[in-house]
Amino acid sequence: MGFTDGFKITFKTMFEDKVTTRYPHEKRPKPERFHGRHVLNRYEDGMEKCIGCELCAGVCPAKCIYVRGRDNPEDAPVSPGERYGFVYEINYLRCIHCDLCVEACPTEAITESKMFEFSFTNRRDAIYTKAELVVDDDGRPRELPWEDWRPGDDTDTSGWMRATSPAGSPLYEDRPLWSGELGYGVREPEGGQPLEEIERQERVAAALHAPSGHGHDAGHGHDDPHDDGPGH
């Protein structure tokens, strides 16, 4: 490539449509299944969903979650179960937003919002406590001073959980299989694959596993299910 050939690419792109956005003044729409900052949800009656089972901490590959459960007080239970999350911390200096904690949670207590823009001036602020993670009395995430929340960041959390039939039976399409949340009720399901696509995949799979037919009719005959072999 000559000296001027490299400039041809530069001059060519000068007349093409710009794809760069003026961040942070302009921001691109976030995907439906975007992984952002976590929230701890409540049921519609205000009780916390977390039961302190510590499954999220056990499955976390970055070891950034610390949970301790405690028995619910009989006079003022915190969650519907026997236990609740007494201590809950997430270290965002370690978190990789893999969403495995959301997948492991049996009560849908922890989900991820779409808010990802937050910076810290000290390491202490990077460790979120339960008081900062649990939604408020209206069911909304607690917005901290160093976070940049935008409209819609809290409305579609953990979209993959609401994919009712992404690769399964279409009979479960649009059937919510999750509980309601304080302030939001039962969230809308995310559409799965259409019935035509599922049927096409089933036909392809059946064709791949079908016997070729070679060598079954040439001198072998059909297997007799009542034949126990020689000497029967």
Q: What does the model show?
A:
The protein is of the alpha+beta class. It is 16% helix and 10% strand. It has 5 helices and 5 strands, in the order αβαββαββαα. It has helices spanning 5-13, 55-59, 100-104, 130-133, 195-209, and strands at residues 38-40, 65-71, 83-91, 110-112, 127-128. A 3-stranded antiparallel beta sheet has the order 2-3-5. The longest helix has 15 residues, at 195-209. The radius of gyration is 27 Å and the shape is globular. The termini are far apart. The relative contact order is 0.14.
Briefly, what is this?
The chain is 16% helix and 10% strand.
- Strand order, largest beta sheet: 2-3-5
Mean pLDDT score: 81
For the secondary structure, the number of strands is 5
Q: Low-confidence spans: pLDDT under 50, at least 5 residues?
A: 215-226
Total helices: the number is: 5
Helix content: 10-25%
Q: Encode the helix/strand succession as letters.
A: HEHEEHEEHH
Secondary structure: elements and pairs:
Layout: H1 5-13, E1 38-40, H2 55-59, E2 65-71, E3 83-91, H3 100-104, E4 110-112, E5 127-128, H4 130-133, H5 195-209
Antiparallel strand pairs: 1-4, 2-3, 3-5
List keywords for this structure.
232 residues; alpha+beta; 3-stranded antiparallel sheet; two-stranded antiparallel sheet; 10% strand
